[in-house]
Amino acid sequence: MLRSLMSGVSGVKGHQTLLDVVGDNISNANTTGFKKSSVSFQELMSQTEQSATAPGNERGGTNPKQVGLGMTVGAVTVDHSQGNINYTGASGDIAIEGDGYFVVKSGQGNVFTRAGNFILDGNGDLVQTGTGYRVQGFTMVDDPLNPGQKVVGSDLQNINIPVGQKLPAKATTTVGFRCNLDSRAATVLPMGLNAKDLVTSGYIGSQQYESITFSEGTTTADFLRASFTRPDGTTVAVDFAIEGVNTTTGLPVLADASADLDGDGTPETLRFDDSTGQLQVLSGSDGSLLWFTDLGAAMNYSVVEVDDGTGGTLYYLAEFNDQLDGNRQINFWGDDGTGTMALESENLASEDDGSFIVPSGTVVTLGGQNVEMEQSSSGMGIALKQSGTVIKNFNLQTASIHNTKFDIYDSQGNAYTMETSWEKVDNNLWRWRAWLPEDPGISLSSNTGLVEFSPDGLVERVTDSSGAEMSTLSVNFGVLGASDSSITMDFTGDVLGVGAEDAVTQFGSSFTTKEYYQDGYEMGVLNDYSVGSDGIIRGVYDNGQTQDLYTVALAVFSNPSGLEKLGNGTFRESANSGIPQILRPLEGGAGKLAGRSLEASNVDLTQEFVDLIKAQRGFQASARVITTSDQVLEELMNLKR
Predict the structure, then answer these.
(1) Which CATH superfamily groups domain 174-186+399-522?
(2) CA nearest 459: which of 434, 422, 510, 433?
(3) Does the pTM of the predicted model rise above 0.90?
């Protein structure tokens, strides 16, 4: 028989296969996650009628004489390229962007698919629509090294989302803050010398002082204390006694002090000018000005005038001291009525919100005269009265207090409004307070402390009412039948996972409060779920909480084209696909996930129709070879007639 007849037959068979593959591709143009196939042809074999000869001395070489015997299908290759991602809005639909395959469990074991059209069955298992194959993933488990955080488990499991399951209530244990405290604000009360971070330096004569600091004393003899530190660490301490009050400037009148500061053996005179607020160092030899600083700008006193009982007036400088426990002390510096300077002090208790508590009948003796102290109706101020007449009012400066409110929860999920305030008490120093304004019957302890800022406006140190470096308060929820709670107040950004610049700051900008974080909540019921790009399935509860439940598993193969199709959009590994690597999304080359979306078929209909035309024409041409060969054979048969 003619060789052309068999070549035509092979061409018809090969192009029939191409038609089959193209038809399958076109029929699955709208199949979720479908991967198109392509056909590669190769020649079958060639019959050699004459072999090639090598060139010789007499004549040149000749090429081989071969006749081809047709074609065959070399390969049918599956194209695993990405299909378009289409948003569907269905919570169970998941698409893969990048490499990888969902792992689903059939009756015979795990198989793999790109079709992420999943739903929840009657048991809450996440299964593939139409097949019921269970989707596999890793359970999210509690991190033993970081309580409250979840980590990915190691074993593949059926993903089960128990819609309707309860989430027990959780008591608040941590509150994180993000706000700015305006560094331009004045202190909440006249606090005397604002000495925190009040540091300067300079040369006095030829002597260098790298640190010059100031602080308040505790007696009239050391009303102001100065410390001059040389580069070698040696220090010269100087005390200034108070002698009176400058009623015009509201500054203290201080006695001169002396100390050898320039190292020439002659003591210098240190003088505080109460009219300008300058602290001056004058030469011990000629009285010339060697050094000065504007100390008055750091002083904040209030002048109190008291009738001495004879028609005269005694003047006092009043200041408040912030106490560790959140209470306050008021100090009066002035003439005791005999011409001697004296200090009179009175301790003042505070409510949880910082308002004053002044018992009825509280009296302070100034210059031998009784001065009554009364709190205002709101508790935000106190009044000094002499013989029933108000001689001075002290009010908390609300412009120097920043407040914010939020809900906290007890162990039974009951919500309570907590209010937190910050009040400025010194340079770079603020007192924080926390209380329950709507539930005064619930007591709190350790609910106040101090926040210290560095000169760059970031939190440097946080202390509680005992002075310890912590900020954990206790709430007595036990009076209502719940468990008592300990709540950590985080001002540094550690809980929020942000830097110090995004936590509580002190910059020269308006007071602000961004979102805060607290980890308590009421009981909730699971009513939905979502899938993140990292593959984590998060349960969504009706109390607004989310819980990490599972991470969807993805399988990655070294040769995806070697996978064997099983139907229903699934594949199984073969001898040439490589062993599946079971990974999490975005890990080890695996792609990311798109929730509420599906991957469309990667069939390009334009290309398929072109291939269809090519297959048709190839089939027709091969069939024509067969008919032509048949006609030639018929002519041969006719030669015998």
Answers:
(1) Flagellar hook protein FlgE (2.60.98.20)
(2) 422
(3) no
